[in-house]
Amino acid sequence: MADYTYDFKRLGHPGKWEGVIQCANDTITEFTGSNYGAGGIILHGDAIHADTSITFSGGGTINGGQLTAGTLYEFSIKRVALPDNTAASASVFIRNFSIR
Fold it and tell me: What CA–CA distance (Å, rounded) separates 71 from 10?
């Protein structure tokens, strides 16, 4: 079977985003080190709650109660903390740095 991931290594990723990290309820996810590059987020379900916290890479935070579910927000993200609520989740998108 052919290794098609080689094409992405050789040619690059064609889209604005090259990966996504799913954040579950009752978790804190750091976007440093191997998770570096978080540049977008979509909150799902009960993540639209004041107990959801998004910390920006340049400082400051915003809580989920200030955002709309299902909307893509382009933030430079350092950390996402989701509350202990079974319906809270988030999709955090990792930027493709070859596209400016």
Answer: 32
SS3 state of residue 49: coil
Q: What is the pTM of this model?
A: 0.86
Joined tokens for residue 54: 């998004």
Radius of gyration of the chain (CA): 15
Tens of pLDDT along 20-58? 999 999 999 999 999 999 999 999 999 998 899 999 999
- Strand-pairing partners, residue 99, are none
C-alpha to C-alpha distances, 29 to 19, 25, 50, 57, nearest whole angstrom: 15, 11, 17, 13
CA distance 67 to 62: 9
Phi, psi of 55 (to 5 degrees): -100, 130
Count CA atoms closer than 13 A to 51's CA, side-chain side. 13
pLDDT digits (tens, 9 = 90+) for 7-25: 777 777 678 998 999 999 9
